[in-house]
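Known limitations

Files may contain more than one protein. Parsers should not assume a single record per file. Below, a two-record file is shown to illustrate correct handling: read the sequence, read the C-alpha cell line, then continue until end of file.
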Amino acid sequence: MVGVFGKSVTIMYNHVLRNILAPSKEVATNTFRYTSFYNKLSAEDIWRGVTSVSNAGKKRGRGKGSGKRVAKDLNRGQTIGVGSRNFVWPGLNAPIVRGKTLIQQERLSEVNNMDRNINKIRDLMGTYRIAKVNSIDRGWSGAKMPGRSIGPPDAINEEMFENFDTRVLENKIVFIMKGNMGRKRRYSVLSITGNKKGLAGFAVAKAPEVRTALRKSKNRAAQKVIKIELCDNHTVFHDFSCAFGKTRIFVQRKPEGYGLICHRAIETICKVIGIRNLHAKIEGSTNLQHIVKALFLGLLQQKTHEEISRKTNLHVIEFRNETGLHPHIISKPESCKASKDPLSKEVSDYTQYVLDDQISLKKRKFAPFYIDSKGYNLFLKRKEQVRNQQKVRVNMNAFDNDLQSV
C-alpha cells in the first residue's frame, strides 16, 4: 500500500503510531501553504495590478495618468560576496590559491563606501529625462516623429541607397479587432524617401512596435522609388491641379529664390524630391495620405515642354521676369501650325491648357483699414510719380527693345 498510495499512507501511519504511544496527548496538525500571491507573480505584474485600471476602465478613458511609478531595483549595484563589511571570501570574491599560497578568510578595514555608492545608484533610478533633439533634427512639432529624418533605407543586396533621406509624414496608433486577442494595437507609419534629384517613393507600414513600423515603412518606400521629372532641377514644368478623394491641390510653378510656400507635408515631400521653388494650395480634406497620393499623381501627370509642343504643334515660348520678360523659345515642334489654321476649338491659353480647365479658388481681398487715412493719402502722393516705373521699364525692354518716351 505504501508503494501504491505513496506519501499519504506514510503520513497516516505515523499519525496512528503517535496516538498509540501517547494516547493522552492531543495531536495538533497545521497545514502550511508555501505558495502565495506574492511569490507566484513577478514584481511587474504586482505593480501593474496596483497602478493600472481594468480594460473596461481604459475604454472609458480612465486611468490615463496611472501606471507611473518610481520603483527602485534593490539588486542594482549589488555584487555577490561584497557587502558593507569588508570580508575576503576565498572562491567567492577572491581566488582560492594565489601562486602557491592558500587564501584564508579574513576581515579587512572598516572603511567602506559601498552603502553610499549603492544609495547613489538607486537615487538615480527613476529619474528619466527626455533626450533633447537638435534643432536641425526636429520635426513639425518639437520632438514628435512627423517631419523628422530616419536616415537612408537599408541596403538591398548590392544596392546601396546613397544620398537618400527618409522623412516621416505620419505616425499614429491604429486598432484592429481580433476574434481571439480582442482589441489589438499597432503603429501605422507613412514615410517618404528620396535622393533630392528626382527619385522618390512613399509607403505605409504597420507593426506592433514603433521602431519596427519605422524600419518597415522606410524599406518599403525604397522598393517603390519612381522617377519624377524636374524643370531646371528646382521646380515643376507648369501649373497643375491634382486630386485624390476629397483633397484637391493647386500647384504653381515659381522662379528661383521663391521658396516653398505650401502645406508642411508638401514642403517635406518637395525637399525629399528636390523641388525648391513652388506654391501649392489645398482645397478640401487635409488627410496626409490623400495629400501625398494627390501630389504624386500631379507630379507624374505633368507634361514636359517637348510633349506640349509635339501635341499642339506650336512653339512653347516663355517670358521670365528675371530676364526682363524677353521671349525665349523653350521647345519647337517638328511641324508648326500656320497662322491661318483655325484655333477656335483649341485652348489657346497656356495656364488653362495645363490645368485642364480647373481654376484655383482665390478669395477676394478686402481693402485695408488705413485706405482712407491721411497718412496713406500722403504716401500715395509721394509715390505717384514712380508707381509704375519698374513695370514700364520691363514692358519696354520686352516689347520695344528700347527705353523711350511715349
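...continuing to the second record:
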Amino acid sequence: MKIQVKYVVVLSTLLFSLVARTQEASPGSSTQAPTAQTQAPLYQQYYTVNEAETEKVTVPTKKATFSMAADLSPEHLLQSAQVVVVNLLKWLLHDEPLSIPQEKYLRKLHFGRWINDPTDDTCMNTRARVLVRDSQVDVTYRGPRQCSVEAGKWQDPYAGQEVTEAKAIQIDHMVPLKNAYLSGAWEWDYKTRCLYANYMNFKPHLVSSGAHENMSKSDKGPEGYLPPNENFRCEYIRNWVAVKAIWHLRMNPVEVQAIYDAVKQYNCNLNSFKMSLDGLAKQREFIEANLNFCIVNKR
C-alpha cells in the first residue's frame, strides 16, 4: 500500500474550499459516464493521515496510551511519560486520482462472513463475541451450546439508548465495508479484507449499535451520516479517522470537509485525536501477524 505523496496539508491551515471534483471518464478513456462498477465519483485528489509529522506529549503512566492520548490535565503530570503521537487531524493531500475498484462491491465475495475463532474455546462468531464484550451485564444465550446471544444490556452510542434484546443490535463496522473497499481495500487480498471484517484488536473498529441507526448509516461516511447522539459525535469522528489511519485507507475531499466541519462545529477536544506512534505500529503488527485468521478458521 505504498502511496505517492504530493504535498502536506495541515488542518489548522486548510482552506476547505475544495469540493470533490469528478469527471465523467478517466483520462484517455471514452466519453461515456462511469459504469456502476465504480460505485463512486472519480475524485481527482484524496487524503491520508500524515504519519511523518509527529510530536511528543505528556501522558500519565498509569493509563493505557497505545491507542489514544490520555488525559493531559495538570493533576496527572506527577506520574507521566513522554509519548510520540501522530495527530489524526493532520493530513497529506495526494494530488492524483483516487483509485477505482475493478469489481463491483459484494460483501460475501470480498469480505467474507463472521468468523468463529476456535482459539477462544467457544462456538461464538465475531458478532456474538462483540455482543458479549459490549454488554454491561452478563448475557444470556439461545440454546444450551451458548453460540448465539439472546439478551444483555447494551448502550447504543449512536442513538444514546439502552437495548436489551440482541436481535435489536447490529454490529457496525466503524468504517463500513463498502466504504473501506472504495477507499483502498479493493486492492487488498481476500484474507486481509476478511480480517478487517472481523477485527477486534481495536475496540472502536466494531460497534454494537441499534439496528435502526446501523441501517441509517449504511455505507455512508461522515459527509452522509453522523450519530443523532450529539454527545458521541466527536468520538465517532475520532474513531473513524483512527480506523482509516490504522488500515492505510484513503479519505476523499468531501469526507475530509465533513470531518473538519464536525470537529469545528462540536468543539471537539483536539488532544483526543492524537494516537501514539507505538500504538499505531502495534495495531499494524497485529494485523500482519493475523492475516491468516480467516483462512485458518474458515469452515
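Parsers that stop after the first record will miss the second one. For reference, the second record is described as follows. The chain has one domain: 7-297.
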